[in-house]
Design goal:
alpha/beta; Maf protein; six-stranded mixed sheet
Length: 206
């Protein structure tokens, strides 16, 4: 079965392709592969307050355009002492401007540490959350949720991964996500847990 992956994040595409490789009956197809080029209205597909709603919003949008089975996700960093921020706003957390001369990821990380700077680092507990969904015709959506707990560290470590990875130290490791190889990260990451379970559910139903 071909599954359309509803994301334009190249880092995420690579991670998810690695996760699906062991399941021979499933194959990922990218948006550009089926002629769905970027449109500005895609920036408005995540207006909701929950990861579940945002993931489903993306899946429904691209399913309607392609008429293909679609998988989508919404994920983010939840920091307890910031009342759950950045949460569903993780991608657009900072007052980012291209004129700043830094990437959006760098701007978000800088803003995160700034928000935490007045709080003791013993309170910087956090968790990464991912909700993945599968939408196939009108049979209803299937969801899978993955989480990994850890804490935020002030100084970035590592250049792997993306987003907040260099500042996120999972409880299960002495290395940040930014220091881990892709295989190491996939073993314990929120996205790895969510998609591994979702792919098993899909493959058993094929």
């Amino acid at each position: 079965m071909e599954l359309l992956l509803a994301t334009r994040n190249q880092h995420k595409i690579h991670e998810i392709r690695t996760l699906i490789e062991p399941i021979s009956k499933l194959q990922l197809v990218g948006l550009e592969d089926v002629g769905l080029n970027y449109e500005e209205r895609e920036e408005e597909l995540e207006p909701y307050d929950t990861f579940e709603e945002n993931a489903l919003s993306k899946a429904e949008y691209f399913h309607e355009l392609s008429e293909m089975p679609v998988i989508a996700d919404d994920s983010g960093l939840v920091v307890d002492c910031l009342n759950g921020a950045p949460g569903v706003k993780s991608k657009r957390f900072s007052p980012f401007s291209a004129e700043d001369g830094i990437s959006r990821d760098e701007a978000n990380n800088k803003h995160l540490i700034h928000c935490l700077s007045n709080l003791p680092d013993t309170e910087w507990q956090a968790r990464y959350v991912c909700v993945a969904t599968f939408l196939f015709d009108n049979k209803g959506a299937k969801f899978s949720k993955g989480e990994v707990k850890g804490r935020i560290i002030k100084s970035a470590r590592g250049t792997e991964g993306f987003g907040y990875d260099p500042h996120f130290l999972p409880d299960e490791s002495n290395f940040t996500f930014g220091e881990m190889s892709e295989d190491e990260k996939n073993l314990i990451s929120h996205r790895g847990r969510a998609f591994k379970n979702l792919f098993q559910v899909i493959s058993h139903g094929v």
